[in-house]
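Expect chain and fold; thus:
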Amino acid sequence: MESTVNSRVYEKSRNGVEKRFIDTISKYGSESMKQLTLFCDDCFMKERVFYVTLHGKGSEVKRFILNKCLVKIALKWRNNKKNSNDYGKQLQPSTWNKMLKYLFSEKNINYHFANDFNGDGEFHAVLTTLWAKQREEDPTFASGVGTSTFDMNADFKIREQFRSGKFNPFSMELTEAAYKDRLKYAIYCLGRYFLCRGRSEIAYCEWKQVKFHEGLVNGEVEEYIEVVHSFDKSHKLSITNTSS
């Protein structure tokens, strides 16, 4: 999560996922699929036949080829971190999102993995079936259970910090400290009162999701704020990337 496209960590992770992909296709793929792992000349550089064949505008032929390769890794890949509690289990949706980004985001391969491969026997449909079976064995799989808890004393702690002068999210000063206090309080409110969970839900919350309302309560006009979620709160497992 801390790596960026300009970091050595990102590059190491990307190369590792690409090697795993190529090794899987080379070992388990058909002869025609194995040909895709070879190198060829692409303008002034060497590139895998796979990327040269599939980059650019999408087509049904490209989608068919890509789906065959993706189904192969969906069936073969499992969590291979031996120090993880999930070792040997299905890879979670967030992990697939990251791996697909590593594989395709810089290669101009344009497909929506959650929408374009949902037919019978296709990549995303295969994954959702595998996730369902994994949840039958382990109901907590990819549920987030135990990974995020709310401190029931948080309201009291924030109030005490404000009273002591150590925390002031209502300051209008244009200083770094004042900005950080406002930011922390906004994040806290989004999680505490509007059920935004995790980095992505908060980071990608847009102003258009915030709605201001008035209503009558016991004859009195009361104002309230609603944050309309654009995220699925049902724990339905799905790849969420918009494209490669």
